[in-house]
Specification:
Number of domains: 4
Strand content: 25-35%
Largest sheet: 6 strands, mixed
Shape: elongated
Radius of gyration: 32 Å
Distance between the termini: 85 Å
C-alpha cells in the first residue's frame, strides 16, 4: 500500500512497527523464563524425592525395625537395586542435558548457552542413522528402565502401575503427524518431544523424565519398606504430589493432571478436588484430571486433598498448585529430515520438511536461491532438494505471511567402500585372488561397492579411470596403462595366460554430481 505523505503519520507507523517487534521479543523472553522456572521446580522436587528414598533405605536398619530382621534381609536389597537402577538412568539423562547445552553453544567453563536455539535439540535427538539417535537411545533407555524394575523379584505388579515413560505426545501439527506416519515408535516419540524445540524447553522435558524416575523410585522403595511391617507403612508427613502430562502445550492439545498424596497411599482414603471439581480416585490412589488447552497463556490449577492420617486417625487437608503454559506455533520451521546437511548428487534429492505455516502446508512455497538445481514437492510440507555443487544450498521459504531464508551445507557423497571386477564374477570373487586366464578375459569392467547403511539408497558411481598393470608370463617385466574400461586394455588382456599377474589400482569413480571419488585399495589377480 502507499505510504502516508504526512511526516507525523509516517512516524506513528514506524513507532507501531517497532512496538510490535518489542512486544514479540518480550513474549519470547517470558516463555523462556517460564521454561527455566519449570526446570528449577523439577530440580527441587527431584532433590526432595532423592532425600526421601535415601531416608527410607536407611530406615530399614533403624532400631524400631530390628524385630523385622528376617524381612529386611529380603526387601532392603530389592530397594537398593531400585535405587541403583534409577540412579543410573537419572545420570544418563543428566549427561544428555550437559551435551545439549554444549550443542547449543556452551563452551566450558562458561555456563552460558543459546537458550532459544530451535535446532540443537533436533540435531542431537533426531538426526543420524536409524537406531543411533540420542532420541531413540533415550526411548530405549526408558523402556529398559521399566523392564529392569519389573525384573526385580515381587515388584512386577507394582511396576505395572507406574507411568508409561515412552507414551508418544499428541502433536499439535497435523502436517507433522503425516510426516511421522512412516517413523518407528521411538522416532515418533522423540519427534514429538524434541523436533524444533527450544533448548531451554528440551532441558525442562529432560528434567520431567528425571522427575518421573525419582517418583517411580520413591514409590517402589516405599513399597519395599512397607513389606517389612505388614501393619502399616510409617509415614512421618503427607503432601500433595501433582504433575501435568506436559509443561508447555499447544492450543487444542489435551492437558492431563495427575494428583495424589505423598507416597500414593490409597489406604488414607483421600478425596481430591482440582479448582473445586471432584476428581475420581483410581485403585492406586491417584486422581487424574483432564482438560482441553485453549487460549495461549499461563495457567494454575489449585489442588486440595482431604484424607485420614493413619498415624493420628484425624482428618487432614493438604493443598498444592500445578502451573503450565499454553503456547502457539512460532512460525515456519524447516528441517533437513535425513541429515543436518545436503549431499551433492543424491539420487532422489535431499528430503526436508516444513511446518508452522500460517495457512497450512498448502500455502508453503519453496524456491532455490543458490547452490540448488531443483526443488520437488513430495507431500504436504515435504520436499526433495537437488544439489550438484559443494558449498551451501540457499532456499527461500514463504507461506504468504512469513518468509525465511535457509542455509544448509552441501557435502559430497561418501567414497565407495571398494571396487570389484564384474562380468561372470560376483562381488566376492571380483575383489581379487586366483582365476583362470580365459575367465578373466571375459570380464566387463569395474563396479563400486556402495557404503553400508548409508542414509540414501540407489547411489550410482561411474568409473572414470584406473591403472592396469600386467606382469609374469606373457609380459616383459611390468607393462601398465591408464584406461577407463577393460576394452581399452584389450591388447594387453589378450596376452594374459597361465602364470600372468594383473593388478588394478588408482581407481577413480565419479558420482551423479561429477565429483571424483578415488580409492586407495587395489585388486590383484593371479591367472591360472
Amino acid at each position: 500500500m502507499a505510504l502516508p505523505k504526512e511526516p507525523r503519520q509516517k512516524m506513528i507507523n514506524i513507532m507501531y512497527l517497532v512496538l510490535t517487534a518489542i512486544l514479540a521479543l518480550n513474549v519470547s523472553s517470558e516463555i523462556l523464563n517460564a521454561f527455566k522456572t519449570i526446570d528449577a521446580s523439577f530440580a527441587k522436587s527431584n532433590d526432595g524425592l532423592k532425600v526421601r528414598s535415601a531416608k527410607l533405605i536407611s530406615d530399614f536398619d533403624a532400631e524400631q525395625n530390628a524385630q523385622f530382621a528376617d524381612k529386611i534381609v529380603i526387601w532392603k536389597p530389592r530397594a537398593e537395586k531400585v535405587r541403583d537402577i534409577s540412579d543410573s538412568v537419572y545420570e544418563y539423562i543428566e549427561m544428555l542435558k550437559s551435551d545439549l547445552k554444549k550443542e547449543s553453544g556452551q563452551k566450558p567453563p562458561s555456563t552460558e548457552f543459546k537458550e532459544d536455539d530451535l535446532e540443537a535439540s533436533t540435531r542431537m535427538f533426531l538426526n543420524g542413522k536409524e537406531g543411533q539417535t540420542k532420541g531413540e537411545q533415550l526411548y530405549a533407555m526408558l523402556t529398559k528402565y521399566k523392564a529392569s524394575l519389573a525384573g526385580i523379584e515381587a515388584l512386577d505388579k507394582t511396576v505395572a502401575g507406574l507411568p508409561d515413560f515412552t507414551a508418544t505426545p499428541t502433536s499439535y501439527n497435523k502436517d507433522n503427524e503425516k510426516l511421522t506416519a512412516s517413523m518407528n515408535p521411538a522416532q515418533k516419540w522423540a519427534n514429538g518431544y524434541f523436533h524444533m524445540t527450544p533448548t531451554v524447553a528440551s532441558l525442562a522435558i529432560l528434567s520431567k523424565f528425571q522427575n518421573d524416575i525419582r517418583n517411580s523410585q520413591t514409590q517402589l522403595i516405599e513399597y519395599c519398606y512397607a513389606q517389612i511391617n505388614s501393619v502399616s507403612l510409617p509415614i512421618t508427613d503427607f503432601g500433595v504430589i501433582a504433575s501435568a502430562n506436559a509443561t508447555v502445550v499447544m492450543s487444542g492439545d489435551e492437558v492431563a493432571i495427575t494428583a495424589g498424596l505423598g507416597g500414593f497411599n490409597k489406604d488414607s482414603k483421600p478425596t481430591i478436588t482440582i479448582d473445586g471439581a471432584s476428581v475420581p480416585i483410581g485403585a492406586d490412589g491417584n486422581g487424574v484430571y483432564k482438560m482441553a488447552a485453549s487460549t495461549p497463556g499461563d495457567y494454575t490449577k489449585h489442588i486440595v486433598a482431604t484424607f485420614i492420617n493413619p498415624n493420628t486417625g484425624k482428618q487432614e487437608t493438604k493443598t498444592a498448585d500445578v502451573k503450565f503454559k499454553v503456547g502457539i506455533p512460532t512460525g515456519l520451521n524447516v528441517s533437513a529430515d535425513a541429515t543436518r546437511f545436503f549431499y551433492a548428487g543424491a539420487p532422489s534429492g535431499n528430503p526436508i520438511s516444513i511446518s508452522g505455516a500460517a495457512g497450512g502446508a498448502g500455502s508453503i512455497q519453496v524456491s532455490p536461491v543458490s547452490g540448488v538445481t531443483d526443488v520437488q514437492k513430495t507431500g504436504n510440507g515435504t520436499y526433495s532438494v537437488f544439489c550438484n555443487t559443494l558449498g551451501t544450498a540457499v532456499l527461500k521459504v514463504t507461506d504468504g505471511k512469513t518468509t525465511t531464508t535457509v542455509n544448509i551445507p552441501v557435502k559430497k557423497l561418501p567414497d565407495p567402500q571398494s571396487a570389484y571386477v564384474f562380468g561372470t564374477l560376483d562381488q566376492n570373487s571380483g575383489q581379487g585372488g586366483s582365476i583362470g586366464a580365459s575367465e578373466f578375459k571375459l570380464q566387463s569392467g569395474l563396479k563400486a561397492v556402495l557404503p553400508e547403511d548409508f542414509v540414501f539408497k540407489g547411489i550410482e558411481y561411474r568409473v572414470k579411470s584406473f591403472i592396469m598393470q600386467f606382469s609374469g608370463k606373457g609380459f616383459n617385466g611390468t607393462e601398465s596403462m591408464t584406461v577407463g574400461s577393460f576394452s581399452s586394455a584389450s591388447a594387453l588382456m589378450s596376452r594374459c595366460t597361465q602364470g600372468s599377474q594383473v593388478v588394478i589400482s588408482d581407481i577413480t569413480f565419479v558420482d551423479g554430481a561429477n565429483i571424483d571419488h578415488k580409492l586407495k585399495s587395489k585388486i590383484s589377480y593371479s591367472l591360472k
